[in-house]
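Check out a protein:
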Amino acid sequence: MAFGETGASALRRALAALAVAASTIGIAGPALSQNPEAAAVILMYHRFGETDYPSTSVDMDQFEAHIAELTNGDFNVVPLSEIVSALRDGRELPDRTVAITVDDAYTSVFERAWPILKRENLPFTLFVATEPVDRGIPGYMTWDQIKELHDAGVTIGSQAVTHPHMPTRSAARNRLELVDSAQRIASHIGQAPTLFAYPYGEASTEIMQLTAEAGYQAAFGQHSGVANATSDLFYLPRFPINVNYGGIDRFRRLINTRPLRVSGLTPKDPLLPAEGPGNPPAFGFSVDGDTDGLGALNCYHSDTSRITQFERLGNRIEVRFDAPFAAGRTRINCTMPTRDGRWRWFGMQYYVAPPN
C-alpha cells in the first residue's frame, strides 16, 4: 500500500487492476464501470464532400447541419478519451454526451471538416492507418497535417498499418499491425495512441485481447449503439454517418439515443465460424435497468430487415435464425422507445471470414 493511501482506496485500486488484467486474458470483457449514468453516443465519419464515395462520405450541407445541432446547447461534445475514462472509472456523464470520430485520415478531413470543427471548438478523434500516409497515397493526409491536428488538440488514434481485415490475419500479423502502427504514429506526433478502431469494425475476442496487450486503453467497432456501463471497452459501438444515413431527422434521433443496457450477450465473440455449430448463432441478451417499453422492442438484421421470430422471456431476448450468416459483416440492431419519446439502442456486428 502506498504511503497515505486508505484501505478503501487501496482496495479500489487493486480491484481495478485485477479487472484490467482479467480483461486482457479474456476473463472479463465488459467495461469496469457499472454506473448507469456513464453513457455516450459516439459518431463515426470517414469522408467529407467526396461525391464519388457516398457510402463513406457526407455532404458538406449535411455536416454543417450536424454541427449546428451539436452546438445548439443541448449536447455535451467531449473528447473520446473522456468517455473511455468515465466508462472505465464509473464516473457519471451528462445526458446527451457525444463524441466525434473520423476514420482513415482522408484529405477531406483536413481540408473540409477540420476548419468547421476548429471554428466551433469541437474535439474529435482521428483514427489513422499508417501505411497509406507513409506511402503518400493521393487522397490521404500527410504526416505534417496529422501533426498539425495533434498539436491543435485533436486526439490521434490507430487503425492499424495496412487497414486489414484483422479476423483473416494471424495473431502474429495482427500484433504487428497494432504495435507498428502505434510506433509510426508516435514517431511523427511524439505520442503513442491509446485508442484503436478496428478496420471495417471487424474483430474477435482474440483480437481484442491482442489490442489490450499492445497497450491500448479501448477499441471501437462500427456497430450502432450507445456506449455505456455494460459495453466492452475493447468493442465499443459507434453510429456510422454517411450521405444515405446523414439526414438531419435521423441525426437528431441518433444523438438523442439512450443506451439499451444488456448483459449475458450470446455470442460474445464477434467472429463466427463459416459453418457448423455457432453459425447461425443463438443470439440473445438480457435487458438491464429500465425495461419500460420492452414489449415494443424490435430487432433488425442487416440481411433480412426486421426480425419477427424472437422470444421475450422476462427481460431476456432470444433470436434464432433459419440459415447461417453469409461471409462478411452482419449487423443486428435492437431498439425500444422510452417514455420521453427517445429510443434505447443496442447493436452488434458479427463477421464470417470468406473461404480461402
About this structure: Residues 1-33 have pLDDT under 50 and may be disordered. The chain is about 30% helix and 25% strand. The radius of gyration is 20 Å.
